[in-house]
Structure formats: structure tokens, C-alpha cells
Model the fold of this input.
Amino acid sequence: MTQERDFSEAFPQSLELTDDDSVLQIVWDDGHTSRLRLDALRAACSCAVCQGHHPSQSLNLKPEQFPEIRIADIAPVGRYAYHIVWSDGHDTGIYTLKTLREMENSA
Ligand SMILES: [Zn+2]
Done:
């Protein structure tokens, strides 16, 4: 855990689940608000299980596969990422602040 601190811009001021817990809303300290649907966030998981170690191993997840997905637990990883445990039991996903910030608002 030494090389990940490449994110030097905005930092989340608050995280909140909205829209019946189907949307993760992040307010950043530069005033930007991200509203990310959980199905899109789940499908974007970048862990080795979901994406493989090679593109041919990717599960090619789609948001439509996760209509009822919820966040079971979310915890900061240092100051660069969040570890999300999903209601489907998937718990190896790490979402960097950079990834979260760069995702398109989907809600
Ligand atoms: Zn994953």
C-alpha cells in the first residue's frame, strides 16, 4: 500500500445511500456531487474476480445483472479508496476515489 496515493484532488465530504438505498451519493469537498447507481457500481467492480488478470478472463458484468444489489458494508481504505461489501456476498471490490470521481452520474 505505498503507490496508491496518486489521488491528490477532491476528497469525499460525505457518503450517503439515497433512492431507497439504490444510489450512492458522494459529496466531494470541491462541491461536486456524484450520484452512482449501485447496479452500475457493482458492474464496474475492478477486482481480479470480476475483471480477471487478463481481459479474456473478464466476466463482462452489466448493470442489468444486479437489479436488487445493495451495499452491505462500505469502509475506507486509507485515504485513497473504499472497500465495498455487496449484498450478493461479493467482498473483494476496492473502489478508488479516482474511479468513483470519474464515474458518470447514473442517477
Ligand atoms: Zn469484483
User: Anything to note?
Assistant: The pocket of zinc ion is lined by residues 45, 47, 49-50, 90, 92-93 (CB under 6 Å). Strands lie at 12-18, 23-28, 33-37, 71-77, 81-86, 93-96. The two ends are 32 Å apart (CA to CA). The longest helix spans residues 38-43.
